[in-house]
Design brief:
The structure is a homodimer. By secondary structure, chain A is α+β, with helices and mostly antiparallel strands. The first copy, chain A, contains 13 helices and twelve strands. In chain A, a hairpin with a 4-residue loop joins strand 9 and strand 10.
Chain lengths: ~325, ~325
């Protein structure tokens, strides 16, 4: 039974509570911290986009196509569909000689409500570029074109480009990824069930380069620097990943995933972090992740205040009255 | 430890799982079914709006003001902010000689995404009428005006109108409601922590009239008929409460509440139902509620298919591919 990681209060009562598992692991695979079961395979969903972006950079494709740091950050993103995100995805595709017609992620209105309202007010309609995964998909298209693969069908597990992406994820997490642990993600690419222990180990490696070939270690460093310089591009207005990295810069790399997943690297400590809320609640994964980062990575001043607010967010109502809060429990250390 | 009530699958794996408590109780207070702990007080939030609407009807205020059935249904609603909802709230206030300026619920864009986009595309902006609680608040204003109370400050626990509303909730659930079990709801009115056992008993009474004064029993019947005739008004496009009552008509009255609450009456069986998901997940409360209704209330044909779809909804991705489902567990009987 996983412990309660996060409580949601209203007045002086706990209104709801989120169970889950979390771990901090160093690049040698040693467990620094553990709460709950970390050997059950879970779908990391979008939390591993940075690992899936490694082939784009380590092969030299990103450099050959002239992708900017902002575009590399977008390749790791679950973005809000704000104007800058959409423009960057379109730019990536143009650099590969393609356009949005080759994206296979599906179309939805921007995740950010204000961006949706702006698009609607302008008489516009969403395209695949607004899909929160369009940066990742544009990265796949760039990789395919650079490799000389026909990008058509790149979302299939058997497409050569997707095989390269999956191989990187497999190697980073030390996990065999095949049809037995495969599901289909919201954007139609494969997602593979991987234990938190392996995910955290992969993120310890991603943050340090330890246990990685030189080209891949260099690619991880490039990706971390690109995201640290462009935290808006990995998520957007109001989002935890953007706020946490804006507050801490290159001291942390983090990425949430659907159904309550949070993964992070803390390069200066050599640690990787992985969290899964049993119930799939993103709000709780974010609080748990921020609380672990806050505890492990001492900071001061404005950064400390920003991180503290993410680890213990107030709940306010439609009149702006504070009615409760979310808070990490003692199970998080 | 509450059991897992609902599982969320992806491929052939359980990706997330929701624990919670649920009960079915008859109007005498006898437990017909129980899963998990039903004596812990939980905030029912919007699930008790129908009980809070009883004074509006039982005092004759609704009849004197000429409220329609659709407007009475809206007084029990957490609506989508679609055009018909907004118009009905404005009409209720006009019948009381008031307008939206006296609503104290706060303002937000419509809960329904398409309604938000229509409002944005028209160059409009939301008012308090778009707040999902505006029907309930308009009912409070109608009650206050009919009673001769100044509606100003009606959201306060100590306002005479709110005292009358709270008294009805207290009597229906047989629970003392005071500052010790009080929190503040999203729309700024008090919400009181009440055990599932008491909530389900209250809804058994609401569905049968048993244990209620004649005027209140008649008011409950009026409210149930009003909602059965206008299921769109209690929620709106795509929403579970609307779909379940559209499928089953007057055979069920149901209402969800924030943070994973579901309450229902099944008049023909004399049962009340109450569900709380520990983690606050509305998606799971809806599946659990629909599953209990499906099990208790045999139906055939299109109704059965509609209810089955609510109790076991498919999860599809942005390309329309079925990637998983939500399903009730054996803990729900």
């Amino acid at each position: 039974m996983d412990p309660i990681l996060v409580e949601v209060t209203r007045g002086d009562r706990v209104e709801s509570a989120h169970r889950g598992a979390a771990t901090v692991i160093d690049a040698s695979g040693s467990v620094v911290f553990q709460a709950g079961g970390i050997d059950t395979a879970i779908f990391p969903r979008s939390a591993v986009k940075s690992l899936q972006a490694l082939p784009l950079v380590e092969t030299g494709a990103a450099a050959r196509l002239g992708l900017t740091e902002a575009e590399i950050a977008l390749a790791c993103s679950s973005h809000n569909g704000e104007e800058a995100h959409v423009a960057a995805a379109a730019s990536m595709l143009a650099k590969a000689g393609r356009d949005s017609s080759c994206l296979e992620c599906g179309t939805h209105w921007p995740s950010n409500d204000a961006a949706t309202r702006r698009l609607a007010a302008s008489g516009g309609a969403p395209s695949a570029l607004h899909n929160n995964c369009s940066g990742k998909h544009s990265g796949f298209v760039c990789l395919a074109c650079d490799r000389g693969d026909d990008p058509k069908g790149y979302i299939s597990p058997d497409h050569p480009t997707m095989r390269a992406v999956t191989a990187a994820l497999s190697e980073m997490t030390g996990t065999v990824l095949d049809a037995r642990n495969r599901g289909t993600d919201g954007c139609s690419i494969p997602t593979f069930a991987i234990p938190l222990r392996a995910l955290a180990t992969g993120f310890a490696r991603f943050g340090t380069g330890n246990g990685m070939a030189p080209d891949r270690a260099a690619a991880a460093k490039t990706i971390r620097a690109a995201v640290a310089a462009n935290p808006f591009m990995v998520a957007g207005t109001g989002r935890l990943d953007t706020k946490l990295m804006a507050a801490l810069g290159a001291r942390v790399f983090c990425k949430g995933g659907a159904e309550g997943v949070f993964c992070a690297s803390i390069p200066e400590l050599g640690y990787g972090i992985a969290v899964k809320c049993d119930d799939g609640a993103g709000r709780a994964a974010q609080v748990a992740g921020a609380a672990l980062v806050e505890r492990l990575l001492q900071s001061g001043g404005d950064s400390a205040a920003a991180v503290a607010e993410l680890a213990r967010p107030a709940i306010t109502n439609w009149n702006g009255i504070r009615v409760g809060e979310m808070r990490p429990t003692a199970a998080l250390g």
